[in-house]
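Lab meeting, item 3. Inverse folding demo.
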């Protein structure tokens, strides 16, 4: 939850800097869960518009998280040394797969033109960043 709040509260419209994998994926996971819950609530209360495929609460929530979602996606691309303009390839269809691969890639080591590596600054790493030694 701290990663989600970090995006919403601390970096709401911050398109500069870098975002770790954990920050991006935890934000995406909590957004997904919140959207499902709000969809259920919208459906149960009759606020769902079947033609549009979204309800009142889900629509409001989507508008609230649109800017921070774009910002964390751009910062995630920056973390790999790529420009935020790469988001535009999503409109090609196949670009969604390319972006998904990018979002799973590890951070660019050291500092790049968007700032220092957040793993090194925060002094930690997530469990996906640990290399497994086969000789053990």
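The presenter then showed the designed sequence:
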């Amino acid at each position: 939850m701290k990663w989600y709040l970090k995006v919403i509260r601390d970096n709401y419209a911050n398109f500069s800097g870098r975002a770790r994998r954990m920050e991006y994926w935890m934000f995406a996971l909590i957004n997904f869960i919140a959207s499902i819950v709000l969809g259920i609530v919208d459906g149960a209360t009759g606020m769902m518009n079947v033609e549009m495929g979204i309800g009142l609460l889900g629509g409001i929530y989507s508008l609230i998280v649109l800017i921070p979602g774009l910002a964390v996606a751009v910062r995630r691309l920056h973390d790999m040394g790529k420009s935020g303009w790469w988001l535009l390839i999503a409109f090609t269809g196949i670009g969604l797969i390319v972006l998904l691969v990018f979002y799973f890639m590890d951070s660019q080591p050291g500092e790049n033109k968007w700032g220092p590596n957040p793993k090194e600054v925060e002094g930690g790493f997530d469990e996906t960043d640990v290399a497994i030694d086969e000789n053990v």
